Amino acid sequence: MDLPQLLLVGLVLLGVLGVLVPGVPGTWLVWAGALWWALHERSATAWSLLVSTTALLLVVQVIEWQLPPRRLRGVGVTRRMAVFAGAGALLGFVVVPVLGAAAGFGGGIYLCERLRLGTHGEAWASVRAVMRAVGTSVLVELLACLMVVGAWVGAVLVD
After folding, report:
1. pTM beyond 0.85, yes or no
2. For residue 70, which of 158, 138, 121 has the smallest C-alpha distance?
3. Do 106 and 88 meet the contact criterion of CB atoms below 8 Å apart?
4. Does residue 61 have a pLDDT over 80?
């Protein structure tokens, strides 16, 4: 696979950001990127990654169905907060692979609310409310997509 196609697959895998935007099928975009790469790469590594990506994302869908429904408007989730949470999760994932995404997600929400509300107590209460309402569901999906992207980057660097 040449560099332009590899970059295009990388952009499709940025569907990970679609997890944070309501209405955008982030997980489907990540899976489509892995499928596209596997179809063009045609190696054992590519097919293994596609199979494991498919299994992981199916398990995540089942887990999400078991979680309580999202109540975005009820707790005051804004687009700005989603951007802060996503950036925090991505930064956390880079600093401490996989596990750092959860801390970064919460940290992004805290930073956004601290800037908006001004005090630690109000920001922390808001983080708890948001995490109860939407955090678990979004975090599970985001973490799975970040794991797929991390595995893909590793596979590209190894091959």
Report:
1. no
2. 138
3. yes
4. yes
